[in-house]
Design a protein that fits this description.
Shape: globular
Strand content: under 5%
Number of domains: 1
Helix content: over 70%
Structural class: mainly alpha
CATH architecture: Orthogonal Bundle
Order of helices and strands: HHHHHHHH
Radius of gyration: 23 Å
Number of helices: 8
Mean pLDDT: 85
CATH class: Mainly Alpha
Distance between the termini: 70 Å
């Protein structure tokens, strides 16, 4: 028996394609509008704060956050001291390792968000970052480490949080991250810092 295949009329096919294109275009517009809003916000922040001094300051501050070096140095310095400080040093290293694993290796490569300078032709004051934008690794590691320091000493912790906020601001001022990259990283970093302290105190929640 010969099989009969009934194809839909051509007009319905074209209408379906047109509707699909309209939906795709509308989705692109929504993404574009939000991206444009963030880019405009970065411009307003930069223009409001701009000065030659701020250029030098933000480059210097952001450089201290490269690879979490300032926090690694502090952690190592604490690890060679007495028990409470040694515990804080180990907790900081745990927090930084979680930031690298969760933030840099997993979330960045899942979200794959382009950095602001891919959308606007900014003149960067620092070397162009090679990885994705979301989340901000500098902000993530800084807030995680500052949260751990806060658990050791609140006064020291407040100073660390202020400095972490300055590093976060530098990423926005230099226009290598969007606001949402930085805000998300602040909350996630704080959470990972708390988790690292709890993990060390409870010997990884009783698993070891």
């Amino acid at each position: 028996m010969k099989r009969i295949i009934i194809e839909p009329p051509q007009q319905y096919i074209e209408q379906g394609r047109k509707l699909q294109r309209q939906l795709e275009n509308e989705a692109d517009k929504q993404v574009g509008r939000f991206c444009l809003f963030e880019l405009n916000s970065l411009k307003r922040l930069h223009d409001y704060l701009y000065s030659p001094f701020m250029d030098h300051l933000m480059v210097a501050v952001t450089s201290t956050g490269n690879f979490g070096l300032i926090w690694i140095f502090i952690a190592l310095a604490l690890m060679v001291q007495d028990t409470p400080r040694r515990q804080t040093g180990y907790s900081m290293l745990i927090a930084l390792l979680m930031c690298i694993t969760i933030g840099n290796l997993i979330i960045k490569n899942v979200v794959k968000r382009s950095r602001p300078f891919f959308h606007k032709n900014y003149k960067l004051l620092i070397k162009q970052p090679w990885d994705y934008s979301f989340p901000s690794g500098h902000t993530l590691s800084s807030f995680a480490a500052a949260t751990v320091l806060f658990s050791l000493n609140q006064n020291v912790g407040v100073l660390a949080i202020i400095y972490a906020s300055l590093i976060a601001l530098s990423r926005l001022y230099l226009r290598v991250h969007f606001f949402t990259d930085v805000f998300f990283s602040m909350f996630l970093g704080t959470g990972l810092g708390i988790l690292a302290v709890k993990a060390y105190e409870t010997q990884f929640f009783g698993l070891i």
